[in-house]
Design goal:
The protein is mainly alpha-helical and 186 residues long. It folds into 2 domains: 89 residues, Orthogonal Bundle (Rna Polymerase Sigma Factor, Chain: A), CATH 1.10.1740; 87 residues, Arc Repressor Mutant, subunit A. It is 72% helix and 3% strand. It has 9 helices and 2 strands. Strand 1 and strand 2 form a beta hairpin. Helix 2 packs antiparallel against helix 3, helix 2 packs across helix 5 and helix 8 packs across helix 9. The radius of gyration is 19 Å and the shape is elongated.
């Protein structure tokens, strides 16, 4: 998750100015929390709703959350979003026969996957994204758009304002670099 909010200061702010504290937390963590929820639910609108509900809960319980705790408020937000996403998954996605494509290109039937295996796959994806974050800019952008947003090469080309060949070269070299990193880890 990007940046860092001082845990002690934000908890004091929750006690005295809860609206401002929630706004700061929202500005800092909204996108990352939506991404976490989306990785579990694979539903953008549900993910946004889950994160909004989380911030509403924080605001409603600001006095209680403002008390000192050794765990960070960031940890608390992630835990709430993760739990709400798992509940959503168990109530909605698991019942449907939706299919989802993961980083390795395989398709899995979510109705047959356990939530634990989904979490493991998400953690692996996050580890891969952390490796990609150290790649050259163009490779990083192309791979991230391909993995996280599932854009095709043409959409990536338009978004970056570069030619299709440049996108293809960046994806090819990025995949090779990623393969070397993963082989070196094993």
């Amino acid at each position: 998750m990007p940046g860092h909010v001082n845990n002690h200061e934000i908890r004091k702010l929750l006690l005295s100015y809860p609206r401002r504290a929630v706004r700061i937390l929202c500005d800092q963590y909204y996108k990352s929390l939506v991404r976490i929820a989306f990785n579990l639910t694979h539903d953008k609108e549900a993910s946004k709703d889950i994160v909004q509900e989380t911030f509403a809960y924080v605001w409603q319980n600001a006095k209680e959350l403002g008390n000192y705790h050794e765990r960070s408020i960031q940890h608390y937000l992630v835990r709430i979003v993760r739990n709400k996403s798992i509940t959503y998954y168990n109530e909605n996605v698991q019942l449907s026969k939706k299919k989802i494509r993961f980083v390795n290109g395989h398709t899995y039937d979510l109705a047959q996957d356990s939530i634990e295996s989904r979490i493991i796959q998400i953690e692996v994806t996050q580890e891969i994204l952390a490796i990609i974050a150290r790649f050259p800019k163009r490779e990083r952008e192309c791979l991230t758009m391909k993995i996280e947003e599932e854009l095709d090469n043409e959409e990536i080309s338009v978004r970056l304002g570069v030619g299709m060949k440049a996108v293809e070269r960046s994806l090819t070299s990025g995949k090779k670099r990623l393969r070397r990193h993963l082989q070196a880890k094993s």
